[in-house]
Fold this protein.
Amino acid sequence: MLKENEVKFYNQNGYLILKDKLDKKTLSDLKNSTTQLIEEFKKNQSTFIRDKNRNISKHGKMFLSNRCEDFPLMEKIY
């Protein structure tokens, strides 16, 4: 749970640095999942970039949900 001063700082600055909020295993799992997602993106990058009809900046969340077949890890995260 965030403290009142943390919420205020976030609202004023748009970010918050949280120290020691996640255990090492959770951080390791997050790092591994992020690395896997990046590697999946790299493998599919050519079609991902060239497909102008399904551009991430154009379609946002709908685009991401439709791309789960290309990036299996997205299904776990999204």
